[in-house]
């Protein structure tokens, strides 16, 4: 179930980015509508592990994946001559 939740978070975020809808974080209701309330313990576990961050908006809660540092590292090029 963890993998499904993470994949869904990535997909919804990408769809928002592609459609240029900002902010790109996923609303709690979007996840519940898609995956059901049984994901709540999974979300808590991911939050405790530091894999997602969550917070309140005016109307709902948001959930956002925290990027894996290793996947965000860009190779440094040596430009010294």
List the helices and strands and how they pair.
Blueprint: H1 2-18, E1 26-27, H2 28-35, H3 40-48, E2 52-56, E3 61-65, H4 69-72
Task: Provide an overview of this structure.
The protein has one domain: Arc Repressor Mutant, subunit A (Orthogonal Bundle). It is globular, with a radius of gyration of 15 Å. It is built from four helices and three strands. It has a three-stranded antiparallel β-sheet with strand order 1-3-2. The model is unreliable at 71-81 (pLDDT under 50). It is α+β, with helices and mostly antiparallel strands. It has helices at 2-18, 28-35, 40-48, 69-72, and strands at residues 26-27, 52-56, 61-65.
Question: Could you give a quick summary of the protein structure above?
Answer:
The protein is α+β, with helices and mostly antiparallel strands and 81 residues long. The chain has helices at 2-18, 28-35, 40-48, 69-72; strands at 26-27, 52-56, 61-65. It is built from four helices and three strands, in the order H-E-H-H-E-E-H.
Name the features:
81 residues; alpha+beta; Arc Repressor Mutant, subunit A; three-stranded antiparallel beta sheet; 4 helices; 15% strand; disordered C terminus
The chain-level mean pLDDT equals 88
**How many domains, in number, for the residues?**
1
CATH topology-level name: Arc Repressor Mutant, subunit A
How far apart the termini lie comes to 51 Å
| Radius of gyration, in angstroms, nearest whole number | 15 Å
Number of helices: 4
Quaternary state of this entry equals: single chain
Strand content: 5-15%
Uncertain runs are: 71-81
Shape, please?
globular
Secondary-structure element string: HEHHEEH
Task: Provide the spatial order of strands within the biggest beta sheet.
Answer: 1-3-2
The total of beta strands comes to 3
Helical fraction: 40-55%
Most strands sheet: 3 strands, antiparallel
CATH class: Mainly Alpha
Structural class: alpha+beta
Q: From the coordinates shown, what is the CATH architecture? A: Orthogonal Bundle
């Amino acid at each position: 179930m963890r993998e499904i939740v993470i994949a869904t978070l990535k997909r919804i975020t990408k769809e928002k980015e592609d459609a240029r809808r900002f902010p790109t974080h996923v609303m709690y209701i979007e996840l519940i509508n898609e995956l059901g309330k049984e994901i709540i313990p999974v979300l808590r576990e991911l939050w405790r592990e530091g894999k997602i961050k969550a917070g309140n908006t005016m109307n709902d809660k948001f959930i956002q994946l925290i990027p894996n540092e290793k996947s965000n590292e860009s190779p440094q090029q040596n430009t010294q001559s």
